[in-house]
Every structure is written in C-alpha cells, then in structure tokens.
Amino acid sequence: MTKIGIVLRAVLVAISLFVPSFTRAEDGLQPFLDRTLAATREKDHLPAVAALVQIHGKLAGEAALGVRALGHPEPVTTNDRWHIGSDTKAFTATLIARLVEKGVMRFDDTLAASFPAFAKAMDPAYRNVTMTQLLSHTAGLPPLTDDKDLPPFMAVIKSANGVKAQRAAIARKYLTMPPASKAGDFAYSNLGFIIAGAIAEACTGKTWEDLIRDQIFAPLGIKNAGFGPPGTPGKLDQPWGHKEEAGKLVALDPASAEADNPPALGPAGTINFALKDWLLFAQDQLDGEHGHGKLLKPETYRKLHTPVTGNYALGWGAKLGPDGVPLLLTHTGSNGFWVADIRIMPKHDMIFLVVTNAGNAAANQAIKDIGTPLKDRLKPFE
C-alpha cells in the first residue's frame, strides 16, 4: 500500500462558505447542469463527474457524465456509487446523537469515563475532553491527514485483529500521548472521529459499520450504499477512484490495497453512496431543521448544526442566520482518489451534491467549477 492510498484528505470548503438566497427553482436547470458538468469534466480532465440538485423536495436536476475508469468504456450512471470521504463525519455525528437520545451515551461524557480501563494512563489533558469536542475537532488530537502521521497509526492497526480492536487500540495509543493542540481550539482531526466511533462500539458491542446500517441507513431507507471503495473487485460495475502518477490519472481497482484508507478510519471517512441515497440523509438533516426529521429530535439536530467554534459544528461546516437557524450546512471529503461535496440550505429548502472519481487538484477545482455556476444560475440576491 502506498502512503497516498492511506492518507485521508479532508477538504473543508466549509471554511469558505457561500450562502445564496433563491427566489424560485430554475425551470431550465437540467440542461444547464448537463452542460456545466460536460464543460467541467473536459476542462479539468476528469474520468467522471456527477451532481444532484433538489429544490423544495423535488429533484430539479441530476446528471452523471464520463467513465467509471479511465481506459475503459463503461459509462457512469445516476445510480452509481461514489466515495464521499470526510462527508462521512456527519453520519458518525448523527449516529452518536441517536445513541445519546437512546441513553447509551452523552455528549458531555469524558474520555476518562468512556475508557475507564486506561483512564489513569491517559494524558491528563485528554481526561476531561468530551464527545462534543471529539466531533467538533476541538479535542487537541493529531490530524492524521498527512504521510508523517502514518507510521505510528499503521503500527497500531497491525498490532490488533479486527476493526473494533483496531479502533480501540488507536484510542489507547493516541490518548496516552501528549496532545497536538490545546483542547477547545479548532484543529481538524480524523482521529477524533475514529475515537468517537470506538466509544460507540464500546458502548454497544457493535461495529461502527453495523451501527451506521442499523441507526442511519435502515430508518432512512438507504440501500444503495456501502463502505470503502465501491464496486466488485475486478469488475467495472461501479466507478473506480483514480490516483495521480507522473501527472496522469490511474484507475484503482477496488481490490487494490491502496484504493482506500484502512477500514479502521471508517468513522472519519469511508462511506460510499448513490446520490439519491445520500440525498435521503441530506433531506433528513434539512427536515430536522424544520422540526420533522426522522432520526432525531429537533433540539438534537440543532445541536449537530450549531458551530462549536468558528464555522464547524458536529460533523458539519455551518453558518447560522441571525435567528440561529443554519443558512448553510456543508462539507467536502476526499480520500485522495475521489472528491464529494454536500451543501444543504435549510431556509431555501435546497440541497446540492457534487462528486467526482478523482482526488487531485483538478478534481477539487471541479467542485468549484460546478458549484459556482449553479449558485449563479439560481439567482442569488442579497
């Protein structure tokens, strides 16, 4: 496995939020979306791109253009799955919220209380860190986003058998080390979400993957989804991710060890989705702001969507209006081989989903090249 195949690259467009207002759904959005995706794919030299726009609960536009893997003719479809990277974090935060409402855990549970077996060995700076801080990147943990972070992490994974044991071992390893930053300060960390997942596993006895299926996918009717790189190894039944080598994109068979990060990173970023299934989750988050979400109580959605520091809430980049209602909920995710972007605008009842099966600089630019014209097309006003 190459290092680049392990690194979880979190691209937080939430730090540069746009918050348009809208007068109405644009009648000619579908052909505009088709043209925009085609132009972006050609300009940024991407294998494939896809996007979905929903306005007032109705599908206003959906398109998928390109091939599942460069060098192969199979086209992408609107039912294909896409790896969403760090956009997974909103699912982990929502899962924790579900368990809080069931009385299994609390947002203010401390790490010392969550891991009593090694609380005394834990660095004192971590003992009073809470679940809320884990989910808002304010726990003081290392980022685990670069090659330099990998050697100790991979050593921990190799020392434990099974994904639950690996996540528990990761928690013990890093919580007994000195913190990387001051608790309470924002410092993006994939480890925080891995450890949050490990706590959920310890409290329930189930893997994070099973909890996501039981507590999120099943209640929302999500069926076309999974974990890790989508598709059957050796077959082009789904899009493949692409890595950049010597300036060229190379398709990655899902059987390849470098096609995704290790499963232990799941709570921080391994879900894959068809866009309409991802939309079911996005719609529930939007509905929650209007008081009728399926998964949580209104006050719990508000907890998830209220920034803890800056523009980051719990698994979401968020910008609130003067009345405290979110104008925008957003996140961008990538494992280095895909990019996925979600934008929910509760006050305007709109959802944008944009994805591509490459993760290079051009792929990240493509998200802007699609999102900006969409914003302009839908006639923002002050």
Relevant terms:
alpha+beta; 382 residues; Beta-lactamase; 36% helix; globular; 13 helices; three-stranded antiparallel β-sheet
Overall description:
It is a single chain. With 382 residues, this protein is of the alpha+beta class. The protein has one domain: DD-peptidase/beta-lactamase superfamily (Beta-lactamase, 3-Layer(aba) Sandwich). It is built from 13 helices and eleven strands. A hairpin with a 5-residue loop joins strand 8 and strand 9. The longest helix has 17 residues. The radius of gyration is 20 Å and the shape is globular. The relative contact order is 0.22.
Summarize the structure.
This protein is an alpha+beta fold. Helix content is 36%, strand content 16%. The strands form 3 sheets. A 6-stranded antiparallel beta sheet has the order 2-1-11-10-9-8, with helices on both faces.
List the helices and strands and how they pair.
Blueprint: H1 29-44, E1 48-55, E2 58-66, E3 81-83, H2 89-101, H3 111-114, H4 124-127, H5 131-135, H6 150-159, H7 163-175, H8 190-204, H9 208-220, E4 225-227, E5 241-245, E6 248-252, H10 266-269, E7 271-274, H11 275-289, H12 298-305, E8 317-320, E9 326-333, E10 339-345, E11 350-356, H13 361-377
Antiparallel strand pairs: 1-2, 1-11, 3-7, 4-7, 5-6, 8-9, 9-10, 10-11
